[in-house]
Design goal:
The complex is a heterodimer of chains A (112) and B (110).
Chain A: E1 3-6, E2 11-14, E3 19-21, E4 23-26, E5 33-38, E6 44-50, E7 56-59, E8 62-65, E9 75-77, E10 86-93, E11 100-102, E12 106-111
Chain B: E1 4-7, E2 10-13, E3 19-25, E4 31-38, E5 42-49, E6 56-57, E7 65-67, E8 73-78, E9 87-94, E10 99-101, E11 105-109
Parallel strand pairs in B: 2-11
Antiparallel strand pairs in B: 1-3, 3-8, 4-5, 4-9, 5-6, 7-8, 9-10, 9-11
The chains are: A mainly beta (112), B mainly beta (110).
């Protein structure tokens, strides 16, 4: 079935460093792709999305490009802040009824 | 505009007890979902609903039941709680592929 794979393990980096979180997917058809963010003690909220190949989603300095040829949707930010510390989930539309399939998430810790 | 709310926020149960988690949304969304979040497992879909009076099984439905008697409410029930159901439970609603999440319920089953 449709699925999302995120890179293993937490990510720890210093303030103003460059962040990349890898996401690859397996899907039949042409899914929409999403990044959700979960701040400590909260539910998930949509960070950005892309609905077709070569689309770039962007929000709050984060970007991700829908790459059909490599089945990837990597998340990047050029200069992270302590406030970006959170768990980031990659997701794709799967199975109809607006359902989403989520990756396992990556904890990002930004150190001052 | 409260969005998606969940009650309770925390709960501790003993094995075999029952309980109901309530999810409410004020966005008039047709679709609602219950997920569980466990360390290293991401979010897994338990049950979902595509409209008032409908329910469907998700990825991990065993041990749970749901009801959607009113469009704005989606209830998740545990008839006989087990330690394996210790988790954080999230409700979400949507009208498209963008889902809006509640703050979660942390459930511990002893």
């Amino acid at each position: 079935g449709d699925s999302v794979t995120q890179m293993e393990g937490p990510v720890t980096l210093s303030e103003e460093a460059f962040l990349t979180i890898n996401c690859t997917y397996t899907a039949t058809g042409y899914p929409s792709l999403f990044w959700y963010v979960q701040y400590p003690g909260e539910g998930l909220q949509l960070l950005l999305k892309a609905t077709k190949a070569d689309d770039k989603g962007s929000n709050k300095g984060f970007e991700a490009t829908y790459r059909k040829e490599t089945t990837s949707f990597h998340l990047e930010k050029g200069s992270v802040q302590v406030s970006d510390s959170a768990v980031y989930f990659c997701a794709l539309s799967a199975g109809g009824n607006n359902r989403l399939a989520f990756g396992k998430g990556n904890q990002v810790v930004v150190i001052p | 505009n409260a969005g998606v709310t969940q009650t309770p926020k925390f709960r501790v149960l003993k094995t075999g007890q029952s309980m109901t988690l309530l999810c409410a949304q004020d966005m008039n969304h047709e679709y609602m979902y219950w997920y569980r979040q466990d360390p290293g497992m991401g979010l897994r879909l338990i049950h979902y609903s595509v409209g008032e009076g409908t329910t469907a099984k998700g990825e991990v439905p065993d041990g749970y039941n749901v009801s959607r008697l009113k469009k704005q409410n989606f209830l998740l029930g545990l008839e006989s709680a087990a330690p394996s159901q210790t988790s954080v439970y999230f409700c979400a609603s949507s009208q498209s592929y963008e889902q809006f999440f509640g703050p979660g319920t942390r459930l511990t089953v002893l």
